[in-house]
Structure formats: C-alpha cells, structure tokens
Write a structure and sequence with these properties.
Layout (H helix, E strand, L loop, with lengths): L7 H13 L4 H13 L1 H17 L9 H16 L4
C-alpha cells in the first residue's frame, strides 16, 4: 500500500466528517479512492447512511417503554465501562 492510501481503520475514523461534508478535498479524494477498491468499507458507509436515515425517523414516543429502558441500561453500562 502506498503511504498516502487510506487504511480501513482510518476510513472508519473519518466517516462522520465525510458524511457531514467537512473533509478537506485531498482527504475526501483519499476516502473515495479507498471506497472504490474496498467493498467492506463501501458496505460500512452504506450501513452508516442507512442508520442515520432510520434513526432520524425514530422518536422517543415510538419506542416501547421496555425497549427504551433496555437501551438506556446498555448505554449506561457502556458509558460506565470507561470505553467512551
């Protein structure tokens, strides 16, 4: 791999900036060049887009109380694990 090629790990770290359109042009080119040759990262990007689209439609009222409590429990456990 050439030194200026993006790795899969770097792509994952940059995906939010890419989706928000704030990557500098050179980084955006590297990102898109990586996507063109990496099906796994292309799939990851599509999953992120779907997640954003679907969660944008989710309201607190649409979640069953038991599911809401389960999600909060998982989030609190994750937050308290020190991996934030």
């Amino acid at each position: 791999m050439a030194s200026n090629e993006l790795t899969c790990k770097e792509l994952v770290e940059l995906v939010t900036d890419y989706l928000e359109g704030v990557l500098p042009p050179a980084e955006r080119r590297r990102f898109e060049e990586h996507l063109a040759g990496c099906q796994g990262c292309w799939n990851y990007l599509q999953q992120m887009r779907a997640t954003i689209r679907l969660t944008g439609q989710l309201t607190e009222e649409a979640i069953e109380p038991q599911a809401r409590e389960a999600l909060l429990h998982v989030f609190r456990a994750w937050k308290n694990s020190g991996k934030v």
